[in-house]
Structure to design on (951 residues):
């Protein structure tokens, strides 16, 4: 297996790795950096639990090879809050009760951030359309949609 | 919040801000200070920042990776297994077959009929024939491929009705009929003789997968003192322990089970942790090293339990005015390969008997007969899944109620008003519902909030091209609190420290439903401290008292009561001590918001913590232990008469759908769900349960099905096992109705398992209302809806 030396810019910091060609970004985040906020739910890019932002765009980290995202801005849930100060989306998820088991939460919040950054003041229908790649089996999405709409109004 | 009272009972209605039910408001909210408030989840900060470690996030250093070789056949004898090549692969620590199991080679929540490793035969394609532990997952995968198994295929059985035939291949030695149960009330002949209309219908539901997002994982860690520590996300740590100890052949106290954060369970993580716990423990026993088994999504679908499929036949009779006179039901309940949670635990435990007693629905019917057959097949096995046998029968009774209403030309809500349970109604099992029966309250509140009467007149095409039609539907529901066995007790310890902070020990687990918030709320309320003063200890069988499993909507009510009893023991010490310190009689003292007050002289008070410190110094009891079990069930096995459970939650759902008449596609466009939960300890958490449950019920109605062909599952991942997305689920309006349960903490009863039950039939009824076609075999995917429309059109012509 061919190995590559790559630099990944994660949460504002550059990290140097030696990776195999087939290693996914999710494996690198979880196994090498202990950034376990991105979860593996299906390993096939279906559930969205592994969503991270790459240059502001929500991407399933289980489908992306680490070698393919060199020098791009990668944001994980660990890099979203400013120390103990929560990002408004995180705050809204907490207050609205948009969290149950919490397994989908990091991916859900990052998808919402990627979307809100590009589409301020969205309609409910737009929010729902943009969450379609992030499954939640617990909440029925109602409070998640409310939390995102709340944030966009704030 | 609104309140309506009559001389017998008090009904409160809690709604969210956007619903205008102000006409119901009569009294302001008063009451307890911690209970009844939507306190933020205790784990919210960790979850929202990604800092909560689920099992897969735990460090893996030093762990071996366990993998399971599964059967290639749904039913076969194992002729030989050759593990030589796999054992020789570098990095492989163990390859185990049936003879390697040190104790009992069988596990199961009720009957240990599932082999840890199959020795002589396999009964479904998820069966384990060998276990591997290796230094990496990759090596473990390679080792699986090197194991050679020779099978002698046997004829399989895939239909419960086929399984009952005399010449059917025997799946287990005792035969294929796992349980037969019956319910007999009144006189069927007389009953049907009084009927003006009799309908006969058959409804059919498929296997469903829980599709919790967190894949199953289990870690078994052998300790130096000979104890086996088993960790993982699980709903029933004590059941896991009971199985692991038998499989290892050691006493119960040599196994320690710790529950760790769980990313959804829905009943599925009652079974699978037993399976993984036993298998990981056997690997750890042989290698003397920590072993983790982490299932991939496809493996979860292959191996773990499902919702039972059922074929349900109903004959129902009613008078012209809608009064029900007779109900006859037959259930062919497919268990699949292993018993899991299906069979009867006397008098009324197990999903099968639950389906039987719930089948006639929340209606008063004088003459009832149900026969229920639970059969083994060579399919995956049915276990616990949210609603435990009840969602299936709700699909049947709520649809036939609508079909009956249509035959009698009665509004669907009126036939339910006429027959629905009220206080003092007798159920099909002859149980008299003496208290906390809020079914009609939910029906009336839901009717108003949904604006049923107006919408019932406004069905028809919604687009100019006349391709889409709107319809509305109703579903009523009921669900037990508790599990119906004589073994349903919960224990809790409450430990107050000298600074007034509290540790709460229970064996109830958190899977997302909010128990780790609601249980401390009850503890804080009873002690008179603040929510943040109570820390709940992660369930650990070495540390917490036996609590039974986290199932059956039992946690808040049963454990809540145990916590109150435990807290009261400590509070008695505190008040006795405070009485001495203040020189005020104990009965005048009250503990509230971290202070002990003299009720008659509010100037006289002490801080809770200074009293606690004095108790500690004087050796006065600061640890309380409470046990609570519900009133015992009394179901007679011959007649199915008696009390299976002690209290029920009631609900009404109303849905609006739009059906595309050309494609059969269904969109759910509006939804209101009202629940009588006795008392909402944490209203936002209750709303969360309702909204999530409705989504799950929607999935059952429209899209979910484990597709099986010849015993092989065709949809192993979430790509083709469809679950509802944000686009499938409408904005759901939950309404909480409170009709006090006098056996519950602060009046509460269960909610977790309930909210999906009425959702499925409400949507199916709305589809029928919209398009005229009725789908009686689930799911109502576009193809089935399309053919139902065609059939209805043919019938009109």
């Amino acid at each position: 297996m061919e190995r590559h030396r790559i630099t990944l810019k994660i949460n504002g910091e550059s990290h140097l790795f030696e990776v195999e060609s087939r290693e996914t970004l999710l494996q690198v985040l979880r196994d090498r950096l202990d950034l376990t906020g991105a979860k593996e739910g299906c390993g096939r890019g279906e559930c969205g639990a592994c969503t991270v932002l790459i240059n502001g765009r929500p991407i399933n980290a289980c489908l992306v090879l680490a070698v393919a995202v060199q020098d791009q801005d990668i944001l994980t849930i660990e890099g979203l809050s400013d120390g103990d100060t929560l990002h408004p989306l995180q705050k809204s998820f907490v207050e609205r009760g948009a969290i149950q088991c919490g397994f989908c939460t990091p991916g859900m919040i990052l998808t919402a951030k990627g979307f809100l950054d590009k589409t301020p003041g969205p309609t409910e229908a737009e929010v729902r359309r943009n969450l379609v790649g992030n499954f939640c089996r617990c909440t029925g999405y109602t409070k998640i949609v409310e939390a995102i709409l709340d944030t966009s109004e704030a | 919040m609104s309140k309506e009272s009559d001389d017998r009972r008090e009904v409160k209605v809690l709604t969210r801000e956007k619903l205008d039910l102000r006409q119901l408001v009569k009294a302001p909210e008063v009451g307890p200070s911690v209970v009844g408030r939507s306190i933020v989840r205790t784990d919210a900060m960790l979850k929202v920042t990604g800092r909560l470690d689920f099992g897969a996030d735990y460090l893996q250093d030093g762990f071996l990776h366990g993998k399971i070789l599964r059967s290639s056949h749904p039913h076969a004898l194992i002729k030989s297994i050759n593990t030589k090549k796999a054992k020789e692969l570098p990095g492989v620590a163990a390859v185990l077959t049936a003879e390697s199991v040190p104790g009992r080679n069988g596990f199961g929540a009720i009957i240990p009929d599932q082999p840890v490793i199959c020795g002589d035969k396999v009964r479904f394609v998820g069966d384990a024939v060998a276990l591997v532990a290796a230094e990496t997952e990759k090596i473990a995968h390679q080792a699986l491929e090197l194991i050679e198994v020779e099978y002698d295929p046997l004829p399989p059985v895939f239909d419960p009705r086929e399984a009952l035939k005399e010449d059917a291949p025997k799946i287990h030695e005792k035969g294929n009929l796992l349980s037969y149960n019956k319910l007999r009330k009144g006189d069927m002949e007389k009953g049907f003789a009084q009927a003006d209309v009799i309908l006969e219908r058959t409804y059919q539901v498929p296997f469903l997968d829980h599709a919790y997002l967190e894949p199953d994982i289990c870690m078994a860690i052998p300790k130096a003192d000979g104890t086996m520590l088993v960790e993982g996300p699980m709903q029933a740590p004590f059941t896991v322990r009971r199985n692991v100890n038998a499989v290892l052949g050691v006493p119960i106290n040599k196994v320690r089970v710790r529950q760790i954060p769980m990313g959804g369970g829905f009943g599925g993580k009652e079974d699978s942790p037993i399976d993984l716990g036993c298998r990981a423990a056997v690997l750890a026993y042989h290698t003397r090293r920590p072993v983790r088994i982490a299932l991939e999504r496809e493996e979860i679908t292959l191996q773990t339990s499902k919702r039972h499929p059922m074929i349900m036949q109903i004959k129902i009779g009613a008078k012209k005015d809608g009064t029900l006179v007779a109900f006859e039901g037959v259930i062919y309940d497919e268990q699949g390969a292993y018993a899991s949670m299906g069979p009867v635990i006397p008098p009324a435990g197990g999903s099968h008997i639950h389906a039987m007693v719930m089948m006639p629905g929340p209606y008063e019917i004088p003459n009832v007969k149900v026969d229920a057959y639970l059969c083994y097949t060579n399919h995956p096995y049915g276990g616990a899944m949210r609603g435990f046998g009840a969602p299936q029968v709700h699909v049947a009774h709520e649809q036939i109620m609508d079909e009956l209403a249509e035959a009698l030309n009665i509004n669907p809500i009126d036939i339910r008003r006429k027959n629905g349970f009220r206080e003092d109604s007798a159920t099909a099992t002859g149980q008299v519902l003496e208290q906390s029966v809020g079914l009609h309250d939910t029906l009336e509140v839901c009717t108003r909030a949904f604006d049923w009467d107006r919408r019932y007149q406004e069905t028809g095409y919604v687009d100019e091209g006349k391709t889409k039609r709107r319809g509305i539907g109703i579903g009523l529901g009921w669900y037990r609190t508790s599990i119906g066995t004589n073994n349903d007790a919960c224990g809790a310890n409450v430990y107050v420290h000298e600074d007034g902070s509290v540790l709460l020990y229970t064996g109830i687990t958190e899977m997302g439903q909010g128990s780790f918030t609601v249980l401390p709320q009850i503890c804080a309320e009873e002690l008179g401290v603040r929510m943040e003063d109570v820390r709940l200890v992660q369930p650990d069988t070495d540390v917490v008292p036996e609590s039974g499993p986290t199932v059956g909507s039992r946690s808040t009510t049963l454990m809540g009561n145990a916590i109150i009893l435990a807290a009261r023991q400590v509070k008695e010490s505190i008040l006795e001590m405070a009485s001495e310190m203040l020189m005020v009689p104990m009965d005048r003292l009250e503990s509230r918001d971290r202070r002990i007050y003299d009720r008659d002289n509010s100037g006289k008070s002490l801080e809770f913590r200074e009293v606690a410190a004095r108790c500690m110094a004087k050796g006065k009891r600061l640890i309380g232990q409470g046990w609570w079990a519900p009133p015992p069930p009394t179901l007679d096995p011959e007649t199915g008469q008696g009390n299976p459970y002690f209290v029920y939650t009631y609900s009404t759902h109303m849905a609006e759908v739009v059906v595309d008449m050309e494609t059969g596609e269904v969109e759910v466009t509006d939804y209101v769900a009202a629940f009588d939960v006795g008392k909402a300890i944490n209203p936002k958490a209750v709303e969360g349960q309702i909204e999530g449950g409705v989504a799950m019920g929607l999935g059952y109605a429209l899209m979910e099905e484990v597709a099986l062909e010849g015993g092989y599952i065709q949809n192993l991942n979430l790509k083709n096992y469809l679950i509802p997305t944000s686009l499938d689920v409408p904005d759901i309006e939950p309404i909480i109705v409170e009709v006090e349960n006098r056996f519950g903490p602060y009046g509460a009863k269960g909610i977790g398992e309930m909210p999906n039950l009425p959702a499925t039939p409400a949507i199916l009824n709305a589809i029928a209302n919209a398009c005229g076609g009725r789908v009686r075999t689930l799911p109502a995917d576009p193809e089935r809806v399309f053919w139902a429309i065609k059939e209805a059109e043919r019938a009109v012509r």
In short: Residues 359 and 393 of chain B are 5 Å apart (CA to CA).
